[in-house]
Amino acid sequence: MSIKLFPVLILVICATSASGQNKTEYDPQQVFAPGFLSEPGNEYRSGNGTPGPMYWQNKADYVINATLDTAKDEITGMVTIIYTNNSPDTLNYLWLQLDQTLFTTQSRGHKTTPVGGYRFGNLEFEGGDSIHSISIKRHGSAITPEYVITDTRMQIMLTKPLKPKGDKIFIKIVYSFKIPPDGSDRMGVTKTQNGKIYEIAQWYPRMAVYDDIQGWNTLPYLGAGEFYLEYGDFDYTVTVPSNLIVAASGELQNPKQVLTSTEIDRLNKARDSDKTVFIISSNEIAKASTRPKSSGMLTWHYKMNQTRDVTWACSQSFIWDAARVNLPNNKKSLAMSFYPVESAPDSSWGRATEYLKYSIEFYSKTYYPYPYPAASNVAGRVNGMEYPGIIFCNMRAKKGGLFFVTTHEIGHNWFPMLVGSDERKYAWMDEGFNTFINIYSGKNFNNEEYKNDRTMKRLTDIMSHPGTEPIMTYPDVMPANQLSVLGYFKPAYGLKVLREVVADPERFDYAFRNYINHWAFKHPQPEDFFRSMNDALGEDLNWFWKEWFYENWKLDQAVDNVQYVNGDPKQGADITISNREQMVMPVEIQITETNGKMGQMNLPVEVWQRSGTWTFRYHSSDTIQSVIIDPDNKLPDIDISNNTWIPAK
Fold it and tell me: Contact at 8 Å (CB) between 480 and 114?
């Protein structure tokens, strides 16, 4: 909005803000009161936000063999879990997650799905995990244990406790499940003109996390809350009809058994190419020449180490292309895309590998090197879902939509695949952090071809609505229409404000990388992040964490008054500002004088520690034409009408 500037007719001016009011509801004791993060650190989690000297986490290694029955759309499998108890506690039972059990009409997730459904719900599909047998082996002896399945959790009772600090147990489970056509927008089956695309996730029984904060983490899988998983090494096979191409987490171990020599040669070429190379082109889809055998089944063997999960997809309809990813310290990875011919134009998935390659290189250089030998982007029905080394994106996405879903989903390989936060409780620690880094990946891509952070500013009205929950609300508790705001955009906007207004980009980036380095392949809690940033930035930001993450306060900064010293603008001006709502922020003020001189004042947040008004001296040389708070609109100010002062006529 432009503002007409009237001539200055008087020298001594006591003007009100544009709203005509200077009432404030602000109470500094609410935001600056001591007590937040006052609990002392301990041997497991230090007061500076880093893992303590006795930090521990348990480990879960997996050997999985699964088979896809395309006639029944069913998975049968056997998983052996090698679970290591590194905790100081004796474990009398174990908890596992059976996520597929969401997809039954008896599940809590089904019963809490609104009529008509929503993105993460389950409507009238009778699937779920079927457990055929369980055996456990310890120190050479094997037994069949007692177990109880409760919704999406399974508890295994141990006849002999699992001892602390390194005791191991081998858990062997034979299982099966029907593949849900629409698996809460995280997996499913898509029909294309050349065959079905199977996106297979949450496909094996997984260990629940046992940690130093809560012991066993047993929140059920209801749909919106994602996952909290232990790290380990995976060795797995998927057996599928021979005409299908498999895309999967990790590195393929038996290319000569499942690929043709032509495809192997093309992959080797892609590993040395910054430009996209076709492994299977559009005119080769579903041809017998793309398969090493014409009938029967093929077993694809993969390994992936130090990861919290693995996932895969398969189809005979895939175009497959790839390119080299350049990582720090002269290391390399491989970016690959798998998509049907319907998605092939250059405005769509023809650029998918370009987007994937760029994003991995950007995040690796800016935050932490990508740790895996390959990354795959798979087109299908899933709108956007992330797994270690593989992502699922919608086959209809194109142009900027495909870029942003790709850069977002692969960004999750940093949060939470690398920094292993608890997604089931704290969506903002993965979705919010990832949305934040997406701002900069978008800004830096191809001369800002797809730059778009306008959504952040548009959140101001939504954020300040009385019915909006705090960010620190469990995803399954959030109103469905607030999940995107509270899980993604408000935390991302907050980190952007912290980086660009409260701190500065260089200091913030150092502190953020420090947090990532300390918690890579570990399990941070929210307080660990807050403490880590406070410590590395050298700032007490408890006021910021409290107001942005734990409260739903609003921000309203205003210019109240301008008065010249002794009535003479050449002696300076005393400018009074106010903080009219409960949220506080540093203050950036632009002052323009009648002679054209422009000045800027930057005031720290501490000006609000005692009251909601502040007066400062500005060394003017002429009458003041305007005073503007937050001239670049970086803050979520709910009333910008009082951000500008101009003299009365």
Answer: yes
What burial class does residue 634 get, using C-beta atoms within 10 Å of its C-beta: 0-12 exposed, 13-18 middle, 19+ buried? Answer: middle
Residue 93: pLDDT over 70: yes
For position 51, what pLDDT does the model report? 98
- Mean per-residue pLDDT over the chain, rounded: 93
Task: Mention every residue, 6+ apart, whose C-beta is less than 8 A from residue 622.
Answer: 569, 570, 593, 594, 595, 597
Distance in angstroms (rounded) separating the CA atoms of residues 183 and 189: 9
Cis amide linkage into residue 505, ω under 30° from 0: no
pLDDT of residue 23: 61
pLDDT tens figures, 480-532: 888 889 999 999 999 999 999 999 999 999 999 999 999 999 999 999 999 99
Nearest to 361 by CA among 432, 309, 401, 410: 410
* Cα angle 523-528-529, degrees, rounded to a multiple of 5: 100
Pull the structure tokens for residue 305. Answer: 């180490």
The Cα–Cα gap between 185 and 183 comes to: 5
Cα dihedral 454, 460, 461, 467, rounded to 10, equals 130
Which distant-in-sequence residues (6+ apart) come within 8 Å of 431 by Cβ?
A: 487, 488, 491
HEC per residue, 128-191: CCEEEEEEEEECCEEECCCEEEECCEEEEEEEEEECCCCEEEEEEEEEEEECCCECCCCCEEEE
Mean pLDDT of 68-96: 98
Report the distance separating Cα 33 and Cα 553, nearest Å. Answer: 15
**Residue 484: CB partners within 8 Å, gap ≥ 6?**
none
Is 477 buried (19+), middle (13-18) or exposed (0-12) by CB count in 10 A? exposed
**Cα–Cα distance between 322 and 354 in angstroms, integer?**
9
Winning range, highest mean pLDDT, from 106-115, 169-178, 342-351 = 169-178
Distance CA(364)–CA(403), nearest Å, equals 17
Mean pLDDT of 68-93: 98
pLDDT band at 8 (very low <50, low <70, confident <90, very high): very low
629, 639 Cβ separation under 8 angstroms: no
Using DSSP's 3-state secondary structure scheme, residue 565 falls into: helix
Q: Of the given ranges (8-22, 176-190, 372-386, 438-452), which has the lowest mean pLDDT?
A: 8-22
Paired tokens of 598: 């422009």
How far does CA 503 lie from the centroid of its chain? 22
Q: Is 433 left (phi over 0), alpha (psi -120 to 50) or beta?
A: alpha
Give the DSSP letter string of 333-357: EEEEEEE-GGG-STTTGGGHHHHHH
- Residue 637: DSSP 8-state: B
Greatest C-alpha distance within the chain = 96
Q: What is the mean pLDDT of residues 443-452?
A: 87
Residues 6+ apart with CB under 8 A from 38: none
Does pLDDT of 66 surpass 50? yes
